[in-house]
Write a structure and sequence with these properties.
Blueprint: E1 3-9, E2 12-19, E3 23-28, H1 29-45, E4 50-55, E5 61-67, E6 70-75, H2 89-97, E7 110-115, H3 119-134, E8 145-152
Antiparallel strand pairs: 1-2, 3-8, 4-5, 4-8, 5-6, 6-7
């Protein structure tokens, strides 16, 4: 069974995606961090916008989507986490210091958006820094499992 879900950012429809995902792969934190830039680069050359949701143990996730000239990254906020998985104040300050925008009414997760020819590179770098530095999935958790789901859009990217 397939269905559609609309992805929104800052109260603007970014894309409508098909469920179930096009692909689902199990990987590790290390492999994800090594390949995010390549994945976003492939997304940026696709004829339709693409999205990935990377699910970590305990309900934490990052997600990102890209089209030819823009890329958006998100890190789950405490709004969607159980008490034992919530980010500490230090982790949230670390996200903010790295350039992530705090959750707000228009975007309930921590988020970044970059535009231009190299937007996907900037979002990839910031996402890896968030995973490793801010969220603490560095060296000691490098082999932890991550499930990566990719989705294709059914709508044209916003300009």
């Amino acid at each position: 069974m397939t269905s559609n879900v609309t992805a929104r950012h800052d109260s603007v429809t970014v894309m409508t995606i098909h469920f179930p995902p096009q692909r689902e792969a199990k990987t590790t934190v290390r492999a994800l961090c090594t390949n995010i830039s390549e994945l976003l680069s492939a997304f940026s050359t696709s004829t339709v916008p693409q999205m990935a949701v990377c699910n970590f143990p305990g309900g934490r996730y990052v997600q990102f989507w890209a089209s030819a000239n823009s890329a958006i990254g998100e890190v789950v906020s405490n709004t969607f986490l159980d008490d034992e998985m919530r980010w500490s104040n230090d982790q949230e300050l670390s996200l903010e210091a790295a350039g992530w925008c705090a959750p707000n009414d228009a975007s309930p997760n921590w988020h970044i958006e970059r535009r231009g020819d190299r937007a996907h590179v900037a979002v990839a770098v910031l996402t890896v820094r968030a995973i490793v530095d801010s969220l603490g999935y560095g060296t000691t958790h490098a082999n932890d499992p991550v499930v990566v789901q990719t989705f294709a859009s059914t709508t044209k990217p916003r300009k």
